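Example record

Each entry pairs one chain with its bound ligand, alpha-D-galactopyranose.
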Amino acid sequence: MDGGMNDLVTPLAAPTEDSVARKFSEIYGCAPAVLARAPGRVEFIGNHTDYNGGAVLGAAINRQVWVAAGPGEPGRLRLASASAESRVCEVAAAGVTRRTGGEAWVNYPLGVWQALASCGLPRPVGADIFVDTDLPAGAGLSSSAALELGTALVLLRLAGGAMPAAEVLAQVARRAENEFVGVPCGLLDQGTIACAQPGRLVHLDCRGPVYRSVPFPAGAELRLFDTRHRHALVDGMYARRRGECAEAARRLGVEWLADLTPAEFQLRAAGLPAELLLRARHVVEEQARVAGTVEALAAGDLRRVGALLTASHRSSQHLFGNTTPELDFLVDRLTGRPGVLGARLTGGGFGGAVMALVTPEFGAGAGAAVGAEFAQVFGHAPVELALEVGGGAGLL
Ligand code: GLA
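Structure tokens for the complex follow.
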């Protein structure tokens, strides 16, 4: 998910290898032994399909979380972040427990610490950790999964031994989130961030899981519009939707909703309570849209790709019920503009950001014009980011 390590909503200055190492030294009094970088991600298409046994297309972006680490002292973990620079959180490595309030961000690295042990992977005897980022939290860009992947890389490197495959790192990070942080997310975020390749979308079939990739289409660009609004109960709403999907699958007699084609669903759906029917129909049709998008990308049919992205948003809006007036407004305004192929909410929903697939015809000032219209209605402008499709998490 995107619980986030800070509350900043304005674009952040990009950290560099030097700035991260310098800040680490200022806090811990020595240079870091190891440095990792993990990107955020956009959900290109596949809204709430991942934990329903379905497929998703994700992209790693050119905004990152940086994690620097040193061995510290045996038996002790110390954690600091640039957004809470003066406060170092100290934890006994033997008995980590969840933190609350201003220290809640450390639950992501602590979850990784626990998950490494649950997965039978090596851990160092202690660690000092420092985190910096230019990835806005709460925008649906998975700053939390990026932090998990960055932490997994530095801890494993400090522990020595062979680095596990990216797919294994994705599972470690997901377990951190599911088992320690307590968010029942699927594999989209961690799988995309661990396995992305520059210029390609990750095509993840979450059953298996099976990782493939497809080229990001030439002639198209990604823009992000962060509404800077997030429902206060977002984690609870996510868990509720997940529960509704599980209940619908149980009533339909399938293990996963993604087991059903839209035609099969049509034949069986009549007995479902009205709300479950809407949720399940979204997942089943969204699964078909992911497949359609992969085909359209292969055929170079950008208009079709864009139409599927917008159809995905409309389904989230009308069937899955996880959009907000802010997200819907942006999609309404963006899709009427020259150069916009399609637009949709990206990520779990209930706030966050809209992703638009655009051509160069979407001129430099077009985003600002949409932002001004948004500000007239909602009182503040969204934050617009031009995104590039980058590679996955790695050590420097
Ligand atoms: C969040 C979760 C993902 C996925 C999306 C919705 O980003 O972390 O696992 O379920 O929502 O598609």
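The chain is about 40% helix and 20% strand.
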